[in-house]
């Protein structure tokens, strides 16, 4: 079907955000998509902080964005905004790195006071980067994600159902984009 880049903008190695993304990656893979995970924290800090767009790791990340049909962007919310680490990467990508792509924004956080961070902080940036379609995102409370000792997670039933719906809508939107692209060729 489609190639999906699954980007975690969390700086934490034990991140609920990254674990949630990997959990959702499995759902997308089961739907026939090729999923490529990217943890921004694995990129060299000196390249991100020094805005080194020529650094091989940054160039490879940009190439992953270019090859993807769709992009899932996950971030923890800190002080009502997406992570600075994610911002560092987005700033180094070409202006229209998301042109023609379907994008699913996801966020995690400790309180519902941050639920609109996707719409007022992240969505405008994704739109300015040329995303063809930004599907309805989802905010998951930290308390609804329980990390297991094996690196997996358990998601509270109501949150799991909502996440399943947004991921399935993203998958359907990817299929519609494939149909539109095929018709245009």
Structural summary, described in words:
- The protein is of the alpha/beta class.
- It has a single domain, classed as Rossmann fold.
- Helix content is 44%, strand content 23%.
- The protein is built from six helices and nine strands; from the N terminus they run E-H-E-H-H-E-E-H-E-H-E-E-E-E-H.
- Strands 1, 2, 3, 4, 5, 6 and 7 form a seven-stranded mixed β-sheet that branches. A two-stranded antiparallel sheet has the order 8-9.
- Strand 8 (145-147) and strand 9 (153-155) form a beta hairpin.
Please tell me the CATH architecture by its name.
3-Layer(aba) Sandwich
CATH homologous superfamily title: Flavodoxin domain
Sketch the major β-sheet. 7 strands, mixed
Question: In CATH's first tier, which class applies?
Answer: Alpha Beta
Order of helices and strands: EHEHHEEHEHEEEEH
Low-pLDDT segments, ≥5 res: 178-185
**Total discrete domains:** 1
Give the number of helices.
6
Q: Fill in the CATH topology.
A: Rossmann fold
Helix-strand category: alpha/beta
- What percentage of residues falls in helices of 4 or more residues? 40-55%
Sheet-strand content, in percent, reads 15-25%
Number of strands: 9
What key attributes describe this structure?
185 residues; alpha/beta; seven-stranded mixed beta sheet; 6 helices; disordered C terminus
